[in-house]
């Protein structure tokens, strides 16, 4: 005959654990997760969305490159032919085929860079923003970090501009434009954000009273 479970044990099993105490005005809401006794706080959903979006787009780019490479090659060659003047096509089959091959290579390289950088930078932004939400107490400092990390998280998307600009503006002009006006600002945002985060964490540890 089955024995009914003890009511006290059932009540004990449903009793929630200790609540995470979060001082008013200290920053973002706690996530409820504790690691080694430290309450881990969640960064703003906008930052999380940027990180997850970049990861998803990077994975999609990898799938597109592996499954639709012939279609991408055909599209690239069609755009080069449509912009023959900016690519310097001269009407010579040998010369033009070399120019087209190099431009198609640059376009595919941009997509490949987008795929690999998105896989790597997305998790970095997610981890760094969580670290900022947890370890940085100043609200303004956290806001600056969130902006820098969100902007820097878009760095892989710059390689999409790299590929498209090479097709529409010519290989050299397109690559130069993408590197100067897209990749460099976005990459700089990511680097500055990570450096500021590291400096704030080191400064915060230095201000802690000795045990």
How is this structure best described in words?
The chain is mainly alpha-helical and 211 residues long. It has one domain (44-205). The protein is built from eight helices and two strands. The protein has helices at 7-13, 45-67, 69-82, 84-87, 93-135, 139-153, 158-169, 171-206; strands spanning 30-35, 38-41. It has a two-stranded antiparallel ribbon with strand order 1-2. β1 (30-35) and β2 form a beta hairpin. α5 (93-135) runs antiparallel to α7 (158-169) and α5 (93-135) packs parallel to α8 (171-206). The longest helix has 43 residues, at 93-135. Residues 8-27 have low confidence and may be disordered.
Low-confidence stretches: 8-27
What is the overall silhouette?
elongated
Q: What is the CA-CA span between the terminal residues?
A: 58 Å
Structural class determined from secondary elements: mainly alpha
Radius of gyration (CA) equals 25 Å
Largest sheet: 2 strands, antiparallel
Going across the biggest sheet, name each strand in turn: 1-2
Number of helices: 8
- The domain count comes to 1
User: Roughly how much helix do the residues carry, as a percent range?
Assistant: over 70%
Beta percentage is under 5%
Strands, total number: 2
Mean pLDDT: 83
